[in-house]
Amino acid sequence: MTEDVIIIGGGLHGSSTAYQLAARGRRPLVIERNHVARHASGASAGGVRRLRRHRAELPLAMESLALWRRLPELLGDDCGFSPCGHLLLAETEADLAWTVERAATTRSLGYDFEEPIDRAEVKRLVPSVSNAVVGGIIARDDGFGNPLVTTAAFRRRAESLGARYLERTEVLGIDRDGDGWTVATTAGRFSAPSLVNCAGGWGERIAAMLGETMPVRMKAATMTVTARVPRFLGPVIGHVRKKLSLKQMQNGTVVIGGGYEGRVDMEAGESDVLYAGLPGNMKPVIDAFPHLARVPIVRNWTGLEGNTPDAIPYIGPSPNDPTLVHSFGYSGHGFQLGPICGVIVADLVMQGATALPIGAFQPDRFATAGTLQWGAKEGTAVEEQKAV
Ligand SMILES: Cc1cc2nc3c(=O)[nH]c(=O)nc-3n(C[C@H](O)[C@H](O)[C@H](O)COP(=O)(O)OP(=O)(O)OC[C@H]3O[C@@H](n4cnc5c(N)ncnc54)[C@H](O)[C@@H]3O)c2cc1C
């Protein structure tokens, strides 16, 4: 064996895993087809959000937030983390009822970070919001980080502790032999007793090389940045019902997400903005903040992300071989989970188990015929997901 552990994919999850393994004395090799953070981890909106998370992700999101706060100590970099809060706007009585139900359900699970607020409090926090807003729900300690800086910080710290990165190197095939895994790449063959699949939207293809069925659909979420405007936003803003996500950066620009889909080219590993749909995508933003109507857009981008049928990731050991661990399919909300999922995967590689609850994320949950139903858990109060 030449390597301790091979990690396929140099995004946030591969890099967080590399850091955790290196911090525990292993020497992982990260193999990345492009450059580090080329895909979802570089294109991300950077939301560090627990608000409206799937119930299965809540324990992980709580632990991850604790790690976000410690990143300066762990990585020597604050990763741009700003705990400015996340606020979902409500515009109808039904929206308000949802905020109350959601907070009650989350509280019944043991979490009290989601707080329904009335119109006066929304106006106090965000005075320029439309008068159509009647209230909302807020997680005051959520926030956002800088995606590129965060992934680079994990990588830098991992390398300083002994991890190695091979960029512009594609994994082409994988063999299991008596001693472990041999990975064939465009830069030769590498072997290790443990293998980690952090290949994001291509994780399904890596799993298929190993005969495992783990479906994902690639989506290209669209981001928009405006020209600088005077400060008007504190918290990151979303909406109870509508596709809306915006935050204001230190320099005054407004970064807008919302999960609008661009064009996916799976083979080329590229995506593009669908400009024809852009005015429609901006409508909820302008409805909520009419003063943004005349502010110029300065750039757009898209990012490729793998979405699972139930919109929660695959995290866990292969049912066929515990020396293979999967961690991909974060379905548009894996940035917040990056710090804790590195801990979990390192636990699984080194101890074969983790103290955190990962049963809902088991890799083979769609392997049996008849179990695959796309979108099965979306749309209910607690399970509802919001991409960005
Ligand atoms: C536009 C956008 C906005 C988002 N906003 C948020 C947000 O606000 N909050 C939040 O929590 N999450 C958000 N997300 C989701 C979050 O960014 C992702 O869940 C997370 O970055 C996924 O990280 P990853 O390491 O699993 O995947 P990636 O960053 O995609 O990394 C996987 C890597 O594997 C490599 N790879 C694939 N196949 C091979 C191969 N055969 N050989 C070698 N390497 C290979 C790829 O090149 C890629 O670099 C957003 C995503 C997008 C796209």
From TrEMBL:
The keyword Oxidoreductase applies. Residues 4-348 form the FAD dependent oxidoreductase domain. InterPro entries: FAD-dep_OxRdtase (IPR006076), FAD/NAD-bd_sf (IPR036188). The keyword Oxidoreductase applies. Keywords: Oxidoreductase. GO terms for molecular function: oxidoreductase activity. This is FAD-binding oxidoreductase.
